[in-house]
Specification:
The protein contains 22 helices and 34 strands. By secondary structure, it is an alpha/beta fold. Among the domains are: about 50 residues, no CATH class; about 160 residues, Dimethylsulfoxide Reductase, domain 2, CATH 3.40.228; about 130 residues, Beta Barrel (Barwin-like endoglucanases), CATH 2.40.40.20; about 30 residues, no CATH class. It has a seven-stranded mixed β-sheet, sandwiched between helices. Helix 7 packs parallel to helix 16, helix 8 packs across helix 12 and helix 10 packs parallel to helix 12. The two termini are about 20 Å apart.
């Protein structure tokens, strides 16, 4: 059986490594009981991932409640017994239909809703940890006027007068939001815009899918993100798309991917997965074939793949820079699985995405593994429109801004300029739940409640709907943004619950036949949490080669020198939840580092330059601790986004380095890699909280493995331990073909 190693140090000298590990464990236990100042790493070792530790960090004091017995006990309440409420989570472009476990009036646990056709009972680390955000003491307690607490009466009086004045003077103001997937909220916004025609609604995503949206607008005449069906693909090719970690709809894609690789019977088939990427990702670590590439090489590879498939099918090819990789095996695999393959890219370059569209069209994947009739709605932000917004801010053609769920001062490369522009506006309003870099520049703060305190709905994919309901009374003096917009629009009744219920009865009740009574329809849908119209059938769009030849001609050769690849971490994503200690403590799934971002560097370069884990290097002048990462492409460094917040809370402030200012906007889209980077060695070191080698395996294998051909002969293959077979579910099956 293949021997696996937990670290490069263990591989080089396992005996010395084991002795050092034992000494460290003894020292850690001895130091843990001594009354000494503790670092974040010591805290992690001592307290682990306990709820008590999280509460301690967040300063979540337990509310005092008087024990008053029920005169008549509600039927659904039994002290100590938990109730479950269906709801919806949507934060940072990630959606999940969830069940919220509530005990004695307090939400305590999040689970996936098994009835959801989108998330399919799945959740992610951020969904699970979102329960802690509810109890974050850093949340706003009251409305804020220029840094001081105020009342909703004063807020409403001033803002209604001010936006009325802007309307009379025909001065533009912008409602700047993250992606909105709530159909009822969109109706509220449209009502607000109808009342104020001088207002503009703009959606902004810190990590957008602008490249895909613009490419599909050219190829299909409509800007959308397709419905990728990983469960139907026999061959999967990914160029830098971490679809098991953070890309687009990772929870849904993980379910589909695992379904296509699940082997239960001898006749079952297993999908084959090729991954091209710069840094090792959770998706790349699961691939059958993984090829490390520089970010600048992706365009050349994609164009070469298109030409090779086109030539094999008897079509003409387009002249592009030559690729140094042999793609013949991949081309053969794809051609043998036409209509059963899937090619995706995580690039935000519209030219690369247009070529990806061309490849999927050549392979007959549209309508089979890439659906255009049912689209993903979680990424609607358009970087090009946001750049226009920034230009108008600088030109002072925008008089006011209302920010909801966005933090461009932190996560846009022009954040400093945006901050300066916001400070000079006539009206600046933030609807944030807690303080952040953008909210700190706004004159007024109208705090919104946590999603577990709110009513809402969602349409994450075309034709798939869900509801969200409050599972606890509001802890602080907050108000839903929808209620504020309704009130400022002049609505007689600004209660959003009533608006939401009426909206669903008017728009969805007629799309089902099970209930004739509106009350029964509403209660039933609220109970199960999800709804799909009975006769929904999306019409597939027709592909056009518009722009394909032009995009192929714009593919540039790979660059020389160092390149930095930026990525969203599985824990913090775009950094919105940086103040959540559970997420800060969550080890990176590859490097097993908590609390900090780091520079992942290639092994060969590290050996040649005497660099080790926890060495410090300067990346374009910014000091970063190092992780020597096997699988990192040569001449590349990978660094996570979402760190380096300066206004996040006592847990998240100044943890790691903010890399968003290093990103650039190119051709109207934010590019998450940087060419021409400068790397400098330093003599410094920085202690990281690494759990990769924490505690020994006591001789037990880390994983068990077999290949597909052996497994078909013997389903117990790979489980042999010291001459005997052992039943276990923890093993890896790989394809024997390479």
């Amino acid at each position: 059986m293949t021997k696996y190693w937990r670290s490069i140090e263990e591989l080089n000298d396992p005996v010395s490594f084991r002795k050092a590990e034992m000494r460290l464990e003894v020292d850690a236990k001895r130091n843990g009981i001594q009354n000494q100042p503790a670092s974040r790493r010591d805290f992690l070792k001592t307290f682990g991932f306990s709820v008590a530790a999280a509460s301690l960090v967040a300063s979540c004091t337990k509310p005092v409640h008087k024990a008053i017995p029920f005169l008549i006990k509600p039927e659904e309440v039994t002290p100590g017994m938990a109730n479950y409420y269906a709801s919806s989570y949507f934060e940072g472009n990630e959606y999940c239909s969830v069940l919220v476990k509530v005990r004695d009036g307090r939400p305590i646990k999040i689970e996936g809703n098994s009835l959801s056709p989108v998330s399919q009972q799945g959740t992610s680390a951020r969904v699970q940890a979102s329960i802690l955000n509810l109890y974050d003491d850093f949340r706003f307690k009251t409305p804020i006027k220029r840094g001081e607490a105020t009342t909703w009466e004063e807020v409403d009086g001033y803002i209604e007068n001010k936006i009325g004045q802007l309307k009379r003077d025909n001065k533009k103001f912008v409602l700047l939001t993250s992606t909105i997937i709530s159909p009822s909220t969109k109706a509220v916004i449209n009502k607000f815009l109808a009342e104020y025609p001088n207002a503009q609604w703009l959606q902004y995503d810190a990590v957008s899918a602008t490249g895909i949206l613009k490419a599909n607008e050219i190829s299909f005449g409509k800007a959308f993100v397709p419905d990728y069906r990983f469960d139907k693909a026999k061959v999967i090719v990914s160029f830098g798309a971490d679809f098991l970690g953070t890309w687009l709809s990772n929870v849904e894609y993980t379910k589909g991917y695992s379904a296509g690789r699940k082997l239960l019977e001898a006749g079952d088939e297993m999908s084959r997965h090729y991954q091209f990427e710069s840094g090792m990702s959770i998706t790349g670590s699961n691939a059958d074939v993984r090829i490390p590439i520089k970010p600048s090489e992706e365009g050349v590879l994609v164009a070469s793949l298109y030409n090779a498939i086109s030539k094999a099918k008897g079509f003409s090819s387009v002249s592009t820079p030559a690729s140094t990789y042999d793609l013949s095996g991949l081309v053969t695999d794809l051609l043998e699985n036409e209509g059963k393959s899937l090619v995706v890219s995580g690039s935000n370059d519209v030219n690369i995405q247009l070529v990806i569209n061309g490849i999927n069209n050549l392979l007959g994947n549209y309508g089979k593994t890439v659906l255009t009739g049912k689209t993903l709605n979680t990424h609607q932000g358009n970087d090009t429109e946001f750049e226009t917004f920034i230009s108008e801010l600088k030109d002072k053609t925008i008089a006011g801004v209302m920010c909801w769920g966005v933090n461009p001062v932190y996560n846009h490369p022009a954040g400093t300029e945006i901050k300066q522009a916001f400070e000079g506006l006539e009206l600046s309003v933030s609807f944030a739940e807690k303080d952040d870099e953008t909210t700190a520049t706004c004159h007024w703060v109208c705090p919104s409640p946590n999603y577990l305190e709110s009513w809402n709905d969602a349409e994450p994919k075309t034709g798939s709907f869900s509801l969200a309901q409050p599972t606890i009374s509001k802890l602080f003096d907050s108000r839903q943004v929808q209620e504020s917009l309704l009130k400022w629009s002049g609505s007689e009744n600004s209660d959003f619950y009533t608006y939401l219920k009426n909206y669903w009865v008017e728009n969805f009740m007629g799309q089902q036949s099970e209930f004739a009574d509106s009350r029964m329809f509403w209660n039933s849908t609220l109970q199960i949490g999800v709804f799909e119209p009975a006769n929904f059938a999306g019409s597939e769009l027709n592909y056009s080669e518009n722009g394909l030849s032009e995009s192929m001609s714009k593919i540039k050769p790979a660059n020389n020198g160092w390149e930095i690849a930026f990525y969203e971490s599985v824990a913090l994503s775009n950094g919105n939840d940086a103040n959540n200690p559970w997420l800060q403590e969550l080890p990176d799934p590859i490097a097993k580092v908590s609390w900090d971002n780091f520079a992942a560097v290639p092994v060969k370069w590290a050996v040649e330059n005497g660099i080790q884990n926890e060495s410090v290097i300067k990346v374009n002048g910014i000091e970063m601790p190092v992780i020597v990462q096997p699988g990192q492409a040569a001449d590349t460094i990978s660094v996570a986004l979402g760190y380096g917040r300066v206004i996040a809370g006592k847990v998240g402030d100044r943890v790691g380095q903010n890399m968003f200012p290093m990103t650039v906007v190119e051709n109207g889209a934010k590019k998450l890699w940087l060419a021409g980077a400068t790397i400098e060695k330093t003599e410094k070191t920085y202690e990281l909280a690494i759990s990769q080698t924490h505690h020994s395996m006591e001789g037990r294998p880390i994983v068990r493995e077999t290949n597909f051909d052996e497994w078909k002969i013997n389903p117990a293959a790979g489980n042999e331990v010291k001459g005997r077979t052992r039943k276990t579910r923890c093993y890896i099956i790989s394809r024997s073909r390479i």
